[in-house]
Automatic annotation (TrEMBL):
Keywords: Membrane, Transmembrane, Transmembrane helix
A GO molecular function held by the record: acyltransferase activity, transferring groups other than amino-acyl groups
Protein name, UniProt field: Nose resistant to fluoxetine protein 6
Protein's organism: Nephila pilipes (Giant wood spider)
Ranges that cross the membrane: 38-59, 97-112, 124-147, 163-184, 196-216, 228-253
Coiled coil ranges: none
PANTHER family associated with the record: O-ACYLTRANSFERASE (PTHR11161), O-ACYLTRANSFERASE LIKE PROTEIN (PTHR11161:SF0)
Pfam families reported in the protein's UniProt record: Acyl_transf_3
InterPro entries named in the record: Acyl_transf_3_dom, O2_lipid_transport_reg
Domain Acyltransferase: 3-251
Length: 270
């Protein structure tokens, strides 16, 4: 069971590797017959989304931690459905295909765009692109997160949220890479983010135990509502301690080990 393992959130690395090993099949299709490659990836995205939707309806699963406040009076039932959700949807590579193939599609399109040296998009295209992106982001962050977690809402969240949010991220990457991001590109390229980006992997390893601590504390204290102030408080605390511990971990482990590998590689080259 993943929750009984050390650093159990590293499940993502195995899922990512499995999808990575699958990617050459689709890359060959994209290079040989581009339309066929896009059709295959679209079918995988639809299949993955439909599976998540169907399995949620079939077993009445929760939508990750979003339903937790509504199960405060019946924690055992919530934990049972939560574990089933993790084992059936959250940890499986086939349920993560939509996000991966959105990224693969974007990467191939940007590669083709660079080869053909296409010009910038029109202002109308960019305007409607941002409108659609804002609408999708609003759906992911507002529609799915608020309101009573009915079975239909949970199924829609599990079935479409990954794909919709991936489309939002893909659009932001697209406009920034093509030099059309404007303020967003300037913000994401801000120099102060560079040191934090060097700590991203250590932060990934450390952040989950901190979040889990707050989650388990809320169970013990019986918090019935995740208010905005509480979420802001937890976010700031987790972010601060995550990057502080990530800095120490990188300084004591990651940097020395990478330097050792660098020394060995230099000797091998010589």
């Amino acid at each position: 069971m993943p929750f009984l393992q050390c650093l159990s959130h590293n499940w993502y690395l195995s899922v990512d590797m499995q999808l990575y090993l699958m990617s050459p099949l689709f890359m060959v299709a994209l290079l040989r017959r581009r339309r066929l490659g896009y059709i295959l990836m679209a079918l995988c995205i639809c299949g993955s989304s439909f599976y998540n939707f169907a399995i949620t309806v079939m077993y009445d699963l929760v939508d990750s931690e979003l339903s937790f406040p509504y199960y405060v009076d019946n924690i055992e039932l919530y934990l049972e459905r939560f574990m089933h959700y993790h084992e059936s949807i959250y940890l499986k590579p086939h349920t993560r295909m939509s996000s991966y193939f959105v990224g693969l599609t974007l990467g191939h399109y940007l590669w083709k765009r660079g080869i053909s040296k296409e010009k910038s998009n029109s202002k109308i295209t960019l305007f409607f692109g941002w409108i659609i992106t804002a609408a999708l982001l609003w759906i992911c962050l507002y529609v799915f997160y608020f309101g009573e977690p009915t079975l239909l809402r949970r199924a829609l969240y599990n079935g479409t949220s990954d794909f919709l949010f991936s489309c939002v991220v893909a659009w932001i990457i697209f406009v920034c890479v093509t030099g059309q991001g404007g303020f967003v590109n300037n913000l994401l390229s801000f120099g102060c983010f560079m040191p934090l980006s060097r700590l991203s992997y250590c932060a990934y390893l450390i952040h989950y135990p901190l979040i889990l601590r707050y989650f388990l504390t809320s169970l013990e204290e019986g918090l019935a509502k995740w208010t905005f102030n509480l979420m802001s408080y937890i976010f700031l605390h987790v972010t601060f301690w995550t990057y502080l511990l990530a800095f120490l971990t990188s300084l004591l482990i990651e940097v020395p080990v990478s330097r050792l590998f660098q020394c060995f590689s230099n000797k091998t080259v010589k």
